[in-house]
Amino acid sequence: MLPEEIDALFRARGLASYRSVQVVEWLFQHGARSFDDMTNVPKSLRSECAEHYSVTDLKILKVQVSQADRTRKFLLGLSDGAMVETVVLPEGKRSTACISTQVGCAFGCPFCASGKDGLARNLSVGEIVDQARRARFHPDIGNLTNIVLMGMGEPLANYEATAKATRIFLHERGFALGKRRVTISTAGYLPGLEKLAEDDLPVRLALSLHATDNATRNRLMPINKKYPIERVLEACNHLLLSRRTPLTIEYMLIEGHNDSLGEARRLAGICQSLRAKVNLIPWNPISSSRFRSPSEERILRFQAELRKAGVLAFIRRSRGADIDAACGQLRASSTTKKA
Ligand code: SF4
Known about the structure:
By secondary structure, this protein is of the alpha/beta class. It has helices at 3-12, 17-28, 43-52, 125-136, 159-170, 190-198, 214-220, 223-226, 229-243, 261-274, 296-308; strands spanning 59-65, 72-77, 83-91, 94-98, 102-104, 119-122, 143-149, 182-186, 204-208, 247-253, 277-282, 313-315. It has two domains: 1-55, DNA polymerase, domain 1 (Orthogonal Bundle); 56-334, TIM Barrel (Alpha-Beta Barrel), CATH 3.20.20.
């Protein structure tokens, strides 16, 4: 719930306004896991709250820490037995949480583990926000400065919950993150992009493109058969013009599929027309996959071709690959309910 929605509930019950201020602070500034944790709220009021409402409390089932770069992957249990994964990437005194928005994913990109078992269900607002609360208040994690909605699932296919969770991340009484610190990533889900264009949500947008023509993208990202590249790019352009939202293009490099110099030139053209920067992500291995990452030399040549065209192009090195926490590695096998 947004802080003002909690205020309204308290008002409707005839409770003093400072009580809802206390509850909101407990939720977002102190990470309370239950109403009982809210020790400066009278016991009778805590009981009344617990009778009518609940605090989403995802169970930490497993934490893996990368020996290479201290990336942490949380396996979190939902109340119905489903599971999701959340990744926290430390960077000096800052850290970024990569949050999931769905259990599994409907779009089944063959290079990505998240869609292997299809979509089980959307996450609720509370389940999305609690992943960030788990990261923010974990004793071993420093200052949570950035949130990317880029974990399992397509955020814009769960639009209402994603948008509301994002408002809580931005809200000054919520996580109070700046608008440049929250990013929504999409595989090009057109209905969601259209909703975002009509919304006033001041977030950064990342487009997982991964191919520059429809034939290749149809193979790598089946969502493209329904929402082809030209329509997705047009929707992004419309969004950028109306909102001046900066765009980042995510481009996973897969040997022999999308890593030629011709593709680098086409990608440069797309970036120039959208004034977008590019993150190049060498493909991260998942089990029983036919794909491979290009050689270092090929990756650098691809980047150089983009830079030659004046495009800002960065290589995003795998973070947490040794614990299967890198892009495309969040596992569908961890999300199914155990028998
Ligand atoms: S890459 Fe994104 S859209 Fe494709 S299966 Fe993975 S989570 Fe879904």
